[in-house]
Amino acid sequence: MKVIAINGSPHPHGNTALCLETVCGELEARGVETETLSVGRKTLGGCLGCGGCAKTGRCVQNDEEMDQWCQKIWAADGLVLASPVHYASMGGTMKCFLDRLFYQSQGRLRGKAGASVAVLRRSGGVTTFDDLNHYLLISEMFVVPSFYWNAVHGAAPGEAAQDAE
Fold first, then answer.
1. At 105, which helix (H) or strand (E)?
2. What are residue 7's DSSP bridge partners?
3. Within 13 A of 48's CA, how many CA atoms are on the CB side?
4. What pTM, to 2 d.p., does this model score?
5. Residue 83: which of 25, 146, 130, 48 has the closest Cα?
6. Element housing 122 (H / E)
7. How far apart are CA 165 and CA 146, in angstroms?
């Protein structure tokens, strides 16, 4: 079994990365292979909404790295989405990435497991968590439950480890 984790933060060693390391560590301890893709620092255009991917199975923007990420995600058994909170929602690059990934997925994620994590300083965690979960739900993925919302607090790198909850 393999799970792909998506780091939507522009800070490769920040709190979002720390949270994904924790999640992936727990999965690996249970024999699940993981791989993290860092999209937060990439220059990605948003989905054009042109429907071209419905005809070809891939985004018309002809982005080789995006194509490689999609292939890895579609081949995996599960997906973890993690984004920092920027202005009470997910980061812009993460939104561009998810719009393009899920628009062209066309049923390829149906029945797979998915989970979301929002990383924030003070507020906007529930909104971001909800926004991320919308992608999983509309794709008919099984959302992995939790006893509480997967929102972690921390501003400076490493502070997320101090969030007792």
1. helix 92-105
2. 38, 82
3. 10
4. 0.92
5. 130
6. none
7. 12
The DSSP result for 35-104, as a single string, is EEEE-TTS--PPP----HHHHHSS-TT--HHHHHHHHHHHHSSEEEEEEEEETTEE-HHHHHHHHHHHHH
pLDDT digits (tens, 9 = 90+) for 38-75: 999 999 999 999 999 989 889 999 889 999 999 999 99
Identify which of 30, 12, 130, 11 has the alpha carbon closest to the alpha carbon of residue 78: 30
CB atoms within 10 A of CB 165: 6
Torsion of CA 8, 140, 108, 103, to 10 degrees: -60
For 82-116, what is each residue's pLDDT tens digit?
A: 999 999 999 999 999 999 999 999 999 999 999 99
